Amino acid sequence: MSTQPRLCTTPAAVTDAVAVLLLSDYLVLDCEGKDIGRTDGLLSVICIGTAHAEHIFVFDTLALTRSEPAMAPLLDLMKNERVCKVVWDGRQDFLEILDNYGVRLGGVLDLQLAEVTSRSAVRGEDDRRRLYRLSSGYLSFQLARKIKKDLNDIHLVIGLQKCLELTRLQDTVGKDAEVVAMHKANGGVPWMERPLSSQLIQYAANDIYAIDLLYKFFLQKNWIKLNTLPLLLDQSKRYVSTQWQQGRTERTHPFRIGALVPLDVLKSPQTTLERCSGCERMLSLPCFEHKRQSGILRKSRCRLCNVIAAKKRLPCDEGWMRVTHTGRPGEVI
Ligand SMILES: [Zn+2]
Question: What is the pLDDT averaged over residues 211-218?
Answer without folding.
Answer: 97
